[in-house]
Amino acid sequence: MSVLENWDTWKNFLGDRLHHAQNQGMDNEIVSEFAYKIGDYLANQVEAKTEQEKILADLWSVASKDEQHAIANMMVKLVQNNGSQK
């Protein structure tokens, strides 16, 4: 099963990657930019598999670039307490 097929699995996957990046010393601006790029890629290249992903894709499609950055930042905040390295 792909991490994209289950919302909680996806959040835990992102949480693990976020904690790894932070443990390696990546600052918040870089994390934010990566989150934006990942969100843009997913919205444009990957079919949403869960209702949550469909909502995010719909929001992303109507958002301005600044709003997309805000969505990406909110996703970072959302997954900060997820993953195995809480």
Automatic annotation (TrEMBL):
It comes from Priestia endophytica DSM 13796. InterPro entries: DUF3243 (IPR021637), Uncharacterised_YmfJ (IPR024702), YmfJ/YflH_sf (IPR038292). This is DUF3243 domain-containing protein. Pfam families: DUF3243 (PF11588).
